[in-house]
Every structure is written in C-alpha cells, then in structure tokens.
Amino acid sequence: MIIQSIKMAWEAITSNKLRSFLTMLGIIIGVIALVVLVSLVNGATGAVTSEITALGNDMVTVNIRDDKGSPIRLEDLDEISALDAVHQTAPSGSVNFVAKHGYSDATVSLYGTTPAYYDIQGLDLKYGRFLKTADIDNASYVAVLSYSTADELFGKSDVVGESLTIGGRSFLIVGVLEEDDSLFAAMLGGYSVYAPFTVESRMADEPYVTSIAVSPAGDTDNTEAQVSDFMLARLHQDEDAFHIVNMSSISDAMSTVTGTLSLLLGGIAAISLLVGGIGIMNIMLVSVTERTKEIGIRKAIGAGKKSIMMQFLIEALMVSLMGCLLGLVFSWMILALVSAIAKTISFSMSLGVVVLAVGFASAIGLIFGLYPANKAANKHPIDALRYEG
C-alpha cells in the first residue's frame, strides 16, 4: 500500500511540474537559509577559535597601567614564575622604529622580550635561533625577524648572519620565524622584530616591565587568580593599576556569542521553512479539491480513510523532501563559492546541519500536509462522486 501511495504521489507531483516546483521553492529557500547561515557561522567560529588558540589559548597577559611607585623590573618576573600556577613568564615591550637594509626600509614593531616568550606564544622558527639568556644579560644587539619582515627588507627569507639598522642601531639577525598565514596576521599586517628586552627597553626609554605574558601550570583561571593576587599586593591593592587578559576566557566568550548567533540565524531560517510549509498546505488543499472525484471513486471501490490519508500525506512529505534535497544541493554550491572567495576560511555543511534540515523539512511536510490529508480522507464518497469541480 505504501509503495502504491508513493507511485500515485509521484504521478501527482510530476503531472504539474511547474506548480510542484513553485510549491517546493519555499522549502528550498528555507533550507538554503538554514544550512548556509548556520554553516557560515560555524565556519567563521572555527576560524576565529583556531586563531585565538594560535595566539595562545592557555596564556594570561598582564598590562600594568600605573606602577604606584613600585615598578616591575625584569628580575621581578622570577617571583611571578615561582607561583604554583605559573609555568613561565616573559616581558613584552614594544616600540615602532624604521628598519633599513641597503635601499629598503620599513616601519617595524620592535618587541623586547626573553627566551621564554618563544614557548609562551608558540612561535616557530624557519631559520636560525630565538633569543638566548646571554643575549638578555649582555644586552646584545641581535634580532629575530618575522618572515614578512625578512622578505620585505631583504627580498628573501634566509637572512641569518646579515645585519640591518633599526632606529639607527645595527642589529645582527640570528633567526627568522616561519611564515604566518593566519587570519589575524592578514588583518593586522605590519612587520615584527624580536630583540632582547634589555635592548628594546633602552631604545624605548622604558626601563620597566609594563606588559607580561604568562603561561599557566594547569588551569588558566587559577593562574589568573594567583597573578592577580601578586599584582594587587605589589600595587597597593589597586585593581585599576593593572589589567589581566585570560585568553581562554576570550575563547569561551566567543563560543557563547557564536552559539547564540547560530541559534538566532537558525530561528530566522526556520521561519522561512514555516512559510514553505504554508505553501505546501495551500497547494495540497487545491490538489484535494481538484481530485475530489478521484477520491470518491477510490472510496467507492473500497479504499479506506487510512489509505486516502496516507496518499496525501506521502505526497506532501515527498514535496517537502524533494525541496529539501534541492536546497541542500544549492547550499553546497553556495558554500563552495564562498569558500573559494574567502580562501582563508573553509565553509562546509556539517552532518548535524544536514540532519537538522532534513528533519525540519520532514516535520514541515507532515504537519502541514496533515490537514489536507485529513480533509481528503473524511470526504463522503457520494458527495465526492457528485462533485463537478
């Protein structure tokens, strides 16, 4: 009986192709809206989350606004490193200078730091080495360049052993970092050079530490709490004298925001599907009216209410699922196009979104097909046979 109902539903759909397609159009648009919007949010979320992780998802940053006459010196970082919840610490001073090599020049951000910064930030070397403790102790004029800086000033990446001038002082290049093709790097741009903190602080005329990068030894929240207690004790219990940024908290907040956004956009798309369901109900009611005599004949030869109802329910479900299938195909094409344009972010349909779309479309087909199917099943055979249309 089910197979026969499917065949009859298929014949009814294909006998009015344009009308059937227009009926499906609401479902198609609704599925595209649901799948594309949610997939775009998920893709963007994944990209941003990976970028935050690359920046150091397990890092705590301390920015000192007012030292209260008790400035943090480089040697004071050992006290922070000795805290139970802290693994490593590194200063992070920065100042902009013009860097020159030959006839090439560029404005660079000179970062003053220590060897621990390499592990805390998760940097990767392409050539040479990073800063050493001896470089800090001796205030050596050595520099580690970002890949883009080396390429801009030298026209090549392997420049270890060569020299460049930064702020009028000559630096020996001891290392070059791996090329950073992350989204944040593309957005921020600029050229970076890493030098010993003792050198950068002298050139910037800022002998004290105003920014500290901390890697946790365990839970980042515990690390944040211990570092905060240390800074409060050092800066006379003034909470406004410093600011702590917990990167894991930023990641959690981003997940909450994007999750809410996904629900919001999914709800908007669901409204489109509901509109498509109303279209299905409308056309199914028209179809029931047009096929009144057919219903009367089927009832006269023994078809029961269940058989008639199933026929129209299956027809409504098929229209909805066919619209859903076309919507998924178009969604895949749109996401492929957006991914090709965006390049740095990959957007794809997840299995969960596809299942959600199919389930919602099926529910729409059944719910909005129920009333027309019930109306057809309850028609009296004599009245149906006498109907002239």
- Tell me the count of domains: 2
Which structural class do the helices and strands define? alpha+beta
Write the H/E string, N to C: HHEHEEEHEHEHEEHEHEHEHHHHH
Q: Catalogue the unreliable spans.
A: none
How many beta strands in the DSSP annotation?
11
Number of helices: 14
Helix content: 55-70%
Shape: elongated
For the termini, the CA-CA separation is 28 Å
Strand order of the largest sheet: 3-4-9-6-8-7
Fraction in beta strands: 15-25%
Major beta sheet summary: 6 strands, mixed, barrel
* Cα-atom radius of gyration: 33 Å
* Average residue-wise pLDDT: 82
Give me the secondary-structure topology.
Layout: H1 2-15, H2 17-56, E1 60-64, H3 77-81, E2 86-91, E3 93-101, E4 104-113, H4 116-121, E5 125-128, H5 133-137, E6 142-145, H6 147-154, E7 163-166, E8 169-177, H7 183-188, E9 191-196, H8 197-203, E10 211-216, H9 220-234, E11 242-246, H10 247-290, H11 292-300, H12 305-342, H13 351-377, H14 381-386
Parallel strand pairs: 4-9, 6-8
Antiparallel strand pairs: 1-10, 1-11, 2-10, 3-4, 3-7, 5-8, 6-9, 7-8
